[in-house]
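for the record, two folds in this file. i put them one after another cuz i was lazy. first one right below, seq on top, structure tokens after. the second one comes after a little note so u can tell where it starts
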Amino acid sequence: MVKRLIHLACCLLVSLSWAQSQSKIDVLEHFSFISPVKHNYKLSGNFCELRGSHFHGGLDIKQSGTGKDTIFSIGDGYISRILVSRTGYGQAIYIDHPSSGLTSVYAHLDKFNDILTAYVEQHQMQEESYDVDILVEPGELPVHQRDFIGMMGNTGFSLGKHLHFEIRETATERAINPFLVGFDVHDNIPPSLLSLSIHGLDDNVYKIWERSISLHKYQGQEIELFETINVPSKQVGLAIHAFDRTNGSHNKQGIYAIKLYVNDTLHYNSRMDKLSFDQAKYLKGFVDYSARLQNKGTYALCYRYPGNDLSLIQYSQDGIIVTSPDTTTTVLLVIEDFAGNARKIKLRLRHNGEHLTPKKESPNATPVSLNTHTTVELHGLKVYFEPKTLYRNIQCKLDTVRHAKYGTKYKIHDYKEPFKHPLKITIKPDFEIPEQKKSKVIVIKEDGGMTNCGGAWQDSLFETRITGFGTYRLGYDTVPPSIRPVSFLAKASKLKRFLFRITDNFPVIKNGFTDPIRIKVWIDGQFHISPFDLKTQTLTIPIHEIDSGKHELVIEVKDYSDNTSYFNVQFSK
């Protein structure tokens, strides 16, 4: 009986130790992955790095520098999805590994192996589309560990040749830090700290005071700010501008963990371990969004907005520090990378007795809280707030400016205020729209330029969704895209491909209504697979396998409003 109790106690201790450490050993006991590349790889980007509008979902593996880089399956399984897109991941392969419950993703590939190339081309011809998203039946395309699947490339929204590599939970599609399952790199370099920002906060977690402290001059792993910092507000939050590097790479990478201790008690903890797909764009609530928009740097908040349910944040008291005029509060901020290299900042805060009041809102502003349905309207505009859309309560302010040609322009709240999900708006036109132009109406965002937010008619109202506050109006898109030859000869015997520049008059915001321009190419009446690079706006038409003789080339390009351009020409091989 005693032996049994001792055995149970040992098992309990082991179980507790595993849960507390989040050890990757438990995963690696069940299977063994290999590297997706042959060379000793280095990283240009890591998991949950703070990118332009989202958290980075995987590792960016740099090219070897020795020529073409082959990509391999990291384990046994089957291909579950193949994606070909001019945006996003470009050419990508998804492989399910049933024994582990995980899926590996390989993106921005230059090309697939011969079997997959033929498989994809068959679907492209059937759909008459270069862009395809193929869901493959389980077991239809089996792969084994070390199977060659494609070549490293620069397709999709990629700014240089590399492999974007992900690990996901197959059942939930939740992204997992690949470091947790063995894909780490040599790293003995501690994070670099650039600046610390101290925020005085009001009851709705708005900055009413700020002080930034440059950290460039401080050396060593531990920084102590000896001077007590007097703050004119009871509530205080910290924000850190920092980055990490791994050995052999000059690229700035993301921070793995941030811990905030207040008088030796943990108040805030963010760890880049797992990220749900639907939370990838919650970055706006994780950083000081207004500072970022004003080019002051990317500061990770060390406190949580009330409406931020980001799973990366493990919080105790939301990271908000309560100060007092009577006592000094000691704060320790710990910035870590996955390898355990850390930098620490110790500081002392005291409330100076002042009570700054928030900026007074306009008497016309409408209160909008986090968890209610609220509709705010002004002169034909309605903005529909749904629960859990905002990061914090706001006083929504609408304003109008008369446009000489297109009726009213609407300024919707403050462009520096972030929110989580696209907001539905409707506009009732206050100018006459000819019937033949109704299909060409769009919502335009004016933000220094003009951006197409699309939209659709709902009876007499025009509806769309917006991804940020700012100035919006109705307008028309009646201009078809432009097709311009870059490399084309009517006598093309020496050419292997034609190049065309495809441009449109409006950049497009993806919001559930709009899509990029649609392109189709036919040669002699048959659909011809032709990749389009959105970064360079270049359409490539391969002709090296076309028979000798005379041929007809037709290019069709449609924009969101179905404005269509054609390029029709004869050529010979």
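(here's the note) second protein begins now
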Amino acid sequence: MKLHQRVILFLKLCFFYCFIHTIQAQDSTTVLPEVQVKAFEKKRSLLSSPDALARVDSGFLKISNGLSFSPVLNAVAGVRLEERSLGSYRVAIRGSALRSPFGVRNVKIYWNEIPLTDAGNNTYFQLFEPALFHEIIISKGPAGGMYGAGTGGVMLLYSPVYQQFSQVAHEELYNSLGGYKQTWDVRLKQGQATHRIFASYWNQEGYRVQSDLHKRFVSYAYARSFKTTGSLNFMAYYGHLNYQTPGGLTLAQYLTNPTQARPKAGTIQGAVEQQATFDIKSFFSALSIGNQWHENISWSWANALQINRIENPSIRNYEIRKEPNFSSRGVIHYKNKSNEMYSADVGYEFLTGQFDSQTFANNLGEKGNLQLEQNTSVRQLTVFLQHDFAFKNDWNITLSGSLNRMWTQLNANETIFSPRLALSKKIKNNHSLVAKIAQGFSPPSIGEIRPSSGDINPTLKAEKGWNYELSYRGKSTFGLSYNLTLYQFDLAETIALRRTADGADYFVNVGRTLQKGLELELNYQYKALFTVHTATSWQNYRFKDYTSVTNNYSGNFLTGTSPFIQSVYANVSITKKLVLIPQFIFTDKIYLNDANTDILPASRLWNTKVQYGFSVKKLQGHLWASVDNIGNERYSAGPDLNAVGLRYYNAAAGRNFSVGLRVAL
């Protein structure tokens, strides 16, 4: 799309606002308290934010059975978390997981404003525990104006920094599939300083053969405030995650026995014979400081070190990777306190990492002869500037941009400027309309440039695209709030997954995709007794100008994307102490290959959790029980896309139960 066409489209969105404003009836409702969230270096209400933000708060987090982020994130419109097997996460925000055979790619993740995504554009999100965080903010679509390269979106994870009081909490959890988990959460407050130690231990037998999980995680956080303006924070964790990978099944194998691992086929060994496993040991430490320079100027600065060691015997080979990474992010904030009509933020983010890989033959779970050794360094630099203008009559404009560059020794380096412009208008007290245009830039990850096939692709280009968005938000005095968003994302140089004849991954640019969508979130709360939340996603994602050898896939649905997803959950207080939390997720069919000839059927997933709170003197606690997949639905929570031999299917667990007890003193 040419520049003048982009401007015209943006003006059309603005004229649409004028139309809405004209027909808007007089609103006599009173102003309700607004929850503030921090994103794009600003603390705003969801109603007035110029971006498509979703907030996962403590109410959302209660949905979880304590074992996975899946029930939580899949309750958000436009967000899908898939698990090919226990511990094998794949996250897609407003798009398919076409670039991710496994892992989190093209989604930037931060922990208390510090990057967890490494220089190679990978994030090992599966290391973390839902209980570690009290809030998750999700920004959908390109966020290059402040968060650098990426078209998929941003997840901001927040754990408590300053503790209000000292507390020791412990939780025990048992799962009917053979799982045991315990967590410890120790919080200490000493004057202006606070400490938090969080530790978890989890062993879980998988639903399928060759899908067990073992996980150890411990973190430490220290926070210190200096008067009213300064702060110092230190965070660190060590995680060791080991999970087996059962591999994909054909449809016949999936229907006959969904619990089996990928079997041996001719001379090719199966997952059990090769002891297919993913093992990661990860260490992370970060220090952040902030202060007020002047009445109108403040700053924040953070540096982090992350060291990952991965051992991955697979059906094809045995890979060992060492990945030390360093990140640095600094921001200067300007806000004139005598005239709050203008504010600005300027900063940088720098990521650098060394990615060393050795690939051996896999001799029944043991390292064989060295097949390939590849060592490379990757660096990313983002410099960004954001302006916010507030005008009379509740008009606001946000204008930002970032200059992004990625250096590797493996392929051509690219530099691009990513602008972002948002126009918002608050209508009466409790309604707002936002129109936004933003460009995204997503360079290939190290796993795409150097895939499991072992063949480096020096010509792989970054994805680039323009996103156009219109949101209408509001809330009423009787407890109903809503957020309706329409968007269109034109993506060029789309990166897609391919597989060799023996099942190895490799990636290519396949031309353009056109992604049109609508998201609707409704939330109704009746006092403290009843809350219901619905999230609806319509996704019309199509390939454009996509030809592969002699096949023309232009017009086909984007692989790995469901055209319709509906999530509903409720929080019902039966008594003051007894709470019922049911959840339902409907996922429409998913196209498993680019030709759209193979389809994963729609699935209907029911989960329910019951929680009982109690107190004995100073001891506070709750006992809970959950049932997942109540209908015992047979479905695949994370299919393998474009799979060789049509081995698409990774069966998710059938009906299973969990019970847990948490006490705090």
